[in-house]
Amino acid sequence: MDAAVSTLPLRLALVGVPNCGKTALFNRLTGSRQKVANYPGVTVERREGERTASDGRTLRVLDLPGTYSLKPTTLDEAITRDVLLGRVADAPAPDLVICVVDAVHLPIGLRLALEVKRVGLPMVLALNRMDVARRRGVKIDVARLSAELGVPVLPTVAVKRGGADALIEAIEPTRWPAARSVVAGQVAAQVTTNGRDPRGEDAEQTQADLRGVLSAIGYSPPVENHWAARVDALLLHPLAGILVLGVVMFLIFQAVFSWAAPLMDGIDSGMAALGGWVKAHMSEGPMASLLADGVIAGAGAVLVFLPQIVILFFFILVLEDSGYLPRAAYLLDRLMGWVGLSGRAFIPLLSSHACAIPGVMATRTIPSWRDRLTTIMVAPLMTCSARLPVYGLLIAAFIPREAIGPFNLQGLVLFALYAAGIVSSFAVAFVMKQFAGTRRYSPLMLELPDFQWPNLPNLLLGLWERVRIFVSRVGGIILALMILLWVLAAYPEPPPGATGPAIQYSFAGKLGALLQQLFEPIGFNWQISIALVPGLAAREVAVGALGTVYAMSATGDDLTAQLEPVIASGWSLATACSLLAWYVFAPQCLSTLAVVKRETNSWRYPIIMAGYLFALAYLAAFVTYRAVAAWS
Amino acid sequence: MSPTDLPLSIPLAELRRGETAYVSGLATSRVLDDRSEDVGALLVRLRDLGFVAGARCEIVARMWLGGDPLVVRIGGSMFALRRAEAAAIRVHRYQERLSPSVALEPKDASAAVV
Amino acid sequence: MLQQALVAVFVLAAAVFTSWKLMPARWRLRSLLGIDAWAAKHPQLGGWRERALKPRIARAGGIGCDGCAANTPRPPRSPR
Known about the structure:
The complex is a heterotrimer. By secondary structure, chain A is of the alpha/beta class. Chain A has helices spanning about 1-5, 20-30, 75-85, 105-120, 130-135, 140-150, 165-170, 185-190, 200-215, 225-235, 240-280, 285-305, 305-320, 325-340, 345-350, 355-360, 370-380, 385-400, 410-435, 455-490, 505-520, 525-530, 540-555, 565-570, 575-585, 590-600, 605-630, and strands at about 10-15, 35-40, 45-50, 60-65, 95-100, 125-130, 155, 405, 405-410, 445-450. Chain A has two domains: about 1-215, Rossmann fold (3-Layer(aba) Sandwich); about 240-440 and about 455-630, no CATH class. Helix content of chain A is about 60%, strand content about 10%. In chain A, the strands form two sheets. In chain A, strands 2-3-4-1-5-6-7 form a seven-stranded mixed β-sheet, with helices on both faces. Chain A has a two-stranded antiparallel sheet with strand order 8-9. In chain A, helix 11 (about 240-280) crosses helix 19 (about 410-435), helix 12 (about 285-305) packs antiparallel against helix 20 and helix 17 runs antiparallel to helix 19 (about 410-435). Mean pLDDT of chain A is about 80; it is low at about 1-5 and about 180-200. Residues about 60-80 of chain C have low confidence and may be disordered. Strand 10 of chain A pairs antiparallel with strand 5 (about 75-80) of chain B.
């Protein structure tokens, strides 16, 4: 039996309370060999990675969602319990459980470990952040702890290179028999099924066991960190804290514009020069046009915004790593409660600033269905990173690079646009609350983790991933759409003797003219109208589409003009503002609607979402257009 | 044992910022009963987070207008709780006042009224 | 002439790529299964089937993120 079984991959699972460093340990164990998928039937993220043991065998490591207990209150906590009990199809119970416990917060992690131990699977305990614990004066007799629990206990420092070596050695397959424990199935009946513990003594017993273990190992709680306490006194202050939050957000947007500007100019002129070179050196014909007008002017126009996206994500990642975000959620909970959102909605809504899709998926941590639905419905109103190229283009073309005191005007306008997204989301949530009837109370119970200096290597890795994702998106779907748009804009060719730019006679031109009738009241010309169509697949494609459309409308010597000055001279201020207002709501992202359909399991909500977003977008654009046209 | 029997046991939410106290037990309240979907699970979860009898807790921060939500440090971790769930936690200012069998079962607690 | 042929190839590739990305996930899954069934009849494709096709099918069973690359393999996250 051993010979046959020993070639099968060994399944490991990481379990622990949230914020215990489980994921950092997961990264240490699997390096870059990880992938993210989903559990069957539910929209909970499944993070899995691989590692090769010293005997060549494959170890499959599963990073289970963090949970405080095996009596779940949210969907992802339920997944953790179900995987451990072997109830999930495609995710059989692990052969070995690595229970990660933060040594600085030992009682809460150890309590979970005792619960997990009762499931009966082979287990090791990783005692993480031992370095911090020692500094804070926590005393833990590791050997005694191992004896009390009856499982190996390995100290780890997940964030340091080599910090998990003891653990890596302990999970070698040679240490563990291949046979999976059948006890798991039998014990499953004892663990609760719906959060209510049918036998109260179980929880009592665990608490008693915990007290016993803690006293046996001579545990003493951590000394207070005075520096952190002083910072928290400021950050959690009801008035000063909110002020600090506003200032931080504001400074981030200032940085996004001022730091990115020189880099963006560089990329922009580079693209223009490249396009000019192609046109000058290639023989006249469809290929030259495809390259210069389709690829370079199109996809290139979107690539220009890479620096802004990198800087924005830098700040988002720093905020996430530092532990600040749950504190912001605490500060905003009251305000969000007034409009019918839970404080727990803060983090999904913040994720939506990168892309609404992971934001919508992150709502699975919200226990109440009503709260969750409200959050999902307003998530697309958060200014996602795909809108940034559109905002960036219009601001650069129409807002002068002036300074108001120490701040730059362009950054201010960008901040105002982001604020508009947030304010409108609160307004929509408030309206939804009126229709919802009395809400059942749902608890907050949010942990505020210790402060942590952002880990630079992880940060850079995260940024690199973002760059990779953005560039592959540009080189993938955006490039493909630009090629298609180009062909629709180049053919059919104008009849001989025709005046005016060739594009007007093409499919795209005709379609644009048709759509323009719909958008005339809000000031969109036919170029914008046609650009919104490929924008259905990805919002930022509108920028690329404008690039291509204008490149092909250029006649005479103006063939290498960059998009920004062309728009600045061609559009009225009212049109630009109208397009900005439209994009605050930007109803047209099909991908978001598809995810909402999957998350809510019905067509009803994505249809409602598309409908209300379209109505608001049109209304906002209309009002803005008329107002600015009247005023200017 | 109902919380009204315990002398000087007050709801956590009544503590001011910076004050410390010792948990005497968990009890539901009428407010929580009416509006919460699953009071029992909530109380069990609070206990799992560390709000057990004898645990020392400290109010780190309170939001304006009645301290909803508030931040409490317990067992070395900090949690933000809304007023309603904080009201389920009863504390004594002085450790000596805690009687030995003071921990409450969730099912017993549902019979108690604040 | 060659230019036009090349352009046509690019355009066709773009069209196929776009429709693949924007297709509803269930259609994609069905297409993949169809390709898998066809490939099963040609044993010399076995290696490609194992390496490339089967993992794709396994991944397609989940939520997928039609056309939005911003959501595929998440960056290794913070040290928590």
